[in-house]
Every structure is written in C-alpha cells, then in structure tokens.
Amino acid sequence: MASVEVAAEHERILREIESTDPNCIGPTLRSVYDGQEHGLFMEKLEGRIRNHDREIEKMCNHHFQGFVDSITELLKVRGEAQKLKVKKGDRFLTLPKLPPLQTLNTMDELRQCRLQQRNIATTVDKLTHCLPGEQLPQGGGEYYPALRTLDQLEHSCLPQAGAYLFCTIMAENIPRLRAHIRDVSMSDLKDFLESIRKHSDKIGEKAMKQVRPRHPDKLDRGRYFCIAGLGAHDLVDFSPVYRCLHIYTVLGARDTFENYYRNQRRKQARLVLQPHSNMHETLEGYRRYFNQIVGFFVVEDHVLHTTRGLVNRAYVEELWELSLSKTIAALRTHSSYCTDPDLLLDLKNLIVLFADTLQGYGFPVNQLFDMLLEMRDQYGEILLKKWNTSFRQILDLDNYSPIPVATEEDYRRVMGQFPFQDPELEKTAFPKKLPFSAFVPKVYCQIKEFIYACLKFSEDLHRSSTEIDDMIRKSTNLLLTRTLSHCLQYAIKKKNVGLAELVQIIINTTHLEQSCHFLEEFISNITNVPPGTINATKLYGTSTFKDARHTAEEEIYTNLNQKIDQFLQLADYDWMVAQGGGTASDYLSDLIAFLCSTFTVFTHLPGKVAQTACMSACKHLSTSLLQLLLESDVRQVSMGALHQFNTDVKECERFARAGPVPGFQGDTLLLAFIDLRQLLDLFTQWDWSTYLADYGRPTCKYLRVNPHTALALLEKMKDTSRKNNMFAQFRKNERDKQKLIDTVVKQLRNLIATHQS
User: Locate the Exocyst complex component EXOC6/Sec15 N-terminal domain: which residues (predicted)?
Assistant: First the structure.
C-alpha cells in the first residue's frame, strides 16, 4: 500500500513540474526534498526524461517524409531561382540593346521590384522582433507564459518595431488580452471552488480514515494518531489556485484576489456549518457533517502551507474559532434529541475522531472535549433510564425463591455470575439451594454492564486514568443510590407483596451488600487505578442495600401487624358472659398458628431481623388486645368475659415462652404482654389494696397498670354489676361488692387527681 501511495505522489510531482511555471515551482520542489524516497523520485524523473526523448524521436520520424519533401521543394526553388538569376543576367545584358523607351520601362519595373523586396525584408525583420517565440494561451498551463509574452511585446518588441500601425494595434490590444487571461484564470478558480465545495465531504472522509487507534486496550492520552497517506493535493488539483494567484500578483491585483478567495471560502464555510434538520436521526447524518467540515479545513491548511500569504494563520484560526463555536452549538442541539445510548456512544467516538483529525492539522480542539464531558452526563442519564427498565423487569419477573442448583455445572454457572462463597454449602450434596433468588446475580451482572458502558464513553476523552476512574464511580453511585434504590423501594412497597417475598428481598440485599467490595475491585481493574488511591470516590452500594433492607424490614413489621389486625377482626367476644371458657378463642388459636409458621420462615433472616419482627408482632398483638378490651363500643365487661380474655392472653404468653425464633434471652419476649398480664391479674385477683398502697413505687407489683386504664375497665364492670343483678339490693354480698367497686372507683379517681396536681 505504501509503494502505491509513493508512486502516486511522485506522479503528481512530475505533473506539476511539467505544467507549472519555473518561477512557481518552489512548493513542488520542496515536496520532493521533504519526501523520504528521494532516490526513487530521481529514478522516476530519469524515466520520464527517457520517455520524452522517445516522444521527440517518434515526432521526428513522423515528420521525416515532410522534411524530405521540403528539401525536394527547396531544390526545385533553387533551380527556379537559378533560372531567375540567369534571366536577370540576360536582362541586364539585353538592356543596352533595347530601345530607350522600353529600357526606361524595364528599369522602372526593376526599381519597383527592388523596393518591394526591401519592404518585405523590413516587414519580416520587424515582425520577427514582435515574435519572441511565445503564443497566447491555448490551455490552462500557458497563462503565465502568455503574460510574459505580452510583457515582452509591450516593453521590448513593440518599441523596437517602430511606430507602425500594426504595432499600435497590438499595443492597444495588450490590456484586453491581459484581462482575458485574468478572466479565464478566475473562471478556472471558480470551477475549483465549486468542485471543492461539492467534494469537501470526500476530502474529509479520506482525512478521517487516516486516523487510527494506536492502543485500543489502553486509556492513555493521545490514543489516536494520523497515519501517512493521501493528502489534499492527492485528491484535489490546486493548480487553478496557484495560477490565479500568480496571475493576479503579476497584474498587481493580489489583494483583490486574496479578498475574493477568502470571502468565497467564508461563504462556503457558512454552508458547510449548517447541519441538516434531521442530522440527529442517524449516525451517517453526523458523519457527513463532520466530513464536510474536515474537508473544508484540510483544503485551507494545504493552501496555507503551499501559498505565500493567500491565507495566513490568523485568518485560518479566526475561521476555525467561528466554525468550532457553531459546530458545538449544532452538536448540543441535535444530540439533545438522542435517547439511544448506543447512538450517543457512536457519536462520541465520531466526535473524538473528528477532533483528533483536526488536531493533527494543528487546530485546537479542547472545547470539543469539554463538550464531550457535557454529553457524557447526558449519556449517563440515558443509561440510568435504560437500566431502570432492566432492573424493573428483573425484579418483576423474579420468583423470590432460593435458586435451586441440581448439578455442579449449574452451581459454577451461578458462581461465575456472582461472587458468592459458602464453604458449608459447597460440602452439601446436590441438589441444593443457594440462599438468594435469581435477581441477585442478574442485578450484579447488570451493574457490571453499566460500568462497562460508562467506561466506553469515558475512553479517548483525553483524561487520565484517575479521572476516568472517578467518573465511572460517580456514575455507578447514581445507578445504585437513585436507580436501583428506587426500583428496590418499588418492589418492596408494591401491592400484594407477601412476607415470604419480603424475607427473600432482605436476604438478597444482604448478599448484594456483601458483594460491593468486588465491584470496587472490578472498577479498579478496568481503569488500572489501585482501590486505595487517595481521594478516590467510594461506592455507596452498601448504604443503598442497607436502606432497601431496612425498608423491607419495616414492611415486614407493617405486614405482620396487618395480618394480626385481620385475625383480631374475627374476634367475637361475649362481653356479658357469666363464666369464661377453659380454652383459647378460635381466632386467637389461628393467629398463633399463623405466627408460628411465619417465624419458621424468618429463621433464614440475617442478624436480629427475625427477633425484631417477632417482638414487634407480640407488642402489636398485646396493644391491639388491650385496645379491643377498652374500645368505646364495649360498654360492659363481665368477670366471665374477663376470664375468657385472660385465657387468650395466657395462650399468647405460651407462644412467647416457647421461643418462636431463636436468640431471645430468658422470658424477654414475655415482656411484650406484661401490661396486659398485670392488668388482668389486678382484676382477676381483685388486688386493689396492693395496687393502691404501692402505686408510684419502683417495686410496685402492678407497676405497668395505668390508673386511667384500670378506671376505664372498672367503669365497664360497674355498669355490668348494676344492670345484670335485678335483685342485687336484696342480697347483701352483691350490695357489698357494688359498694366495693364504687369505693375503688372513688379511690382511683382520687389517685389520678392527686398525681395530676
């Protein structure tokens, strides 16, 4: 490929040497000596010389017969001339013999002939001075020689010719001929400008294809470099520019030409920088836009380096600065419509290629990379939306059951997706179950895929490995704390989530929390930044999964309480019953059975979650039972109903004493029912004297009994005693009991009043 390119370059140089005026051949010769294959070019030049020698020989051979014919004709002319000379001599010999009048006529003819001969010789001589060997242009390459001819005619030949009419006519036509040459060269320039306007995208495409990645596996600065290949001069014939510039310079109108060229190129720049309205729809639209801009500035760069001042560095930099601002504005506008992360990533790579290509020509491109950092934020938001959908699908489709593994292959497959180690589980025989459900390895893999996606955009932004590492960690933190956290919260709080699902979510988030340090190592490995680097951003995965777990725990407590409330709604106490039964109520037995089965599942929960849930459930049950006893709809409570209620509470205490979940010390769980127990003991044992005497002391037997609560319940029993005993006034013991209740009520009221004051 290199040899083909070298041969093409040498051929171009030879064409320019053959067609360019010697005074303008400097850039061409410079390209010869700048090349690395100088010896090969000299061989090519000698070969071209030999070809021209053969052409000359062919031309001579072609015209040889004509040359022979001309010699033959010349010999004939010589013969005729000899005859004419003899005739002339004879005429001179016969002159004396002629009559005088005829002699005069003959002498007059001779004088006229000699006068004509002298005039012809003079004309030939003058015309010879007016023909310096050059012709007016027949083709583009002869413009300058034609101008030189006109200059020689005007300043050298015509003055020597004398004041003849034809000299005057020629002198008057010289300005017109110069204007004609100028106009023809300008026409060629306009054709050139139109050509490069149409083909600037092709020029830019060729230039951008010469930029290739240097080290695809590294994140070092300057990852792209420009390889040797075809230049703008290989794709475009710049000779119309050079000729027109030289002609206008010779004609003293260089400033006019420079202004015209620059104004035309500015107009073309405005057209190039105007993107199509649908550019954002496809990558190809962006590619065409970039190709045109690159092609435009590649041409300007070539003109800058091959002409002396037609365009200068200040002009090109001013034009680039304007173009850069318009390009960035267009990219910001059109890229804002993009919602496809893959398209935005491809656009980023194209912008990097665009920037590196122009940077190779010396144009500053830092603003483009600053814009890419802005685009990276947009890319991150699009990724978060995409991953939000992925996480939702994973959580919605999960069965929230431990993953069954039937074979070693299944076990290793899951271990390849998620870093889990359990020596005890590995010792067990197949089939067995992993503690977490399928969403754990799926979520973990999705987090890694997100990190990879962030890395792809962060590459080639001319940033250090540390900066890239920081960008990836910050984006991953957004994924964890915002996207994944919201998805987990949604999965936990959506309707119809059962206790089993909540328990599995707690187990799953615990394992994901334990995997966070593996994610830290994963990022460090792909960015080559050690995890212990100072000021390195830490992942917030631990707090994300902790928060989700705490939410799930709260939902478990709430769910349990709701289930308890549903059972309590089935309670149907006969508050007026004379004597309580000896067995617990049916609703309470069902409730205890439900709690036992539920807490069996809770044994898989980590830490003290099961203990907290059990204690929370018992406290809620105790509080709800007390509220059931004291609610305003229950106006009367008999001692028999109170005994039945006491039996149900004892059933609850048996449940607590049995230790439904391990980890409680002694009778800790029984403390949840202590308020009820002391209240019921006070009423069933009718131990008011002890309560009233010890109230307020730390060692009081009924320390947990609130006097307001006791008074409210006593009022319900007081009304019962009055209305259920029609003949109580005839039985002394009933009357005494009523008086006793009234006395206790009065003492409780006094007690309350005393402590309130």
Answer: 44-208
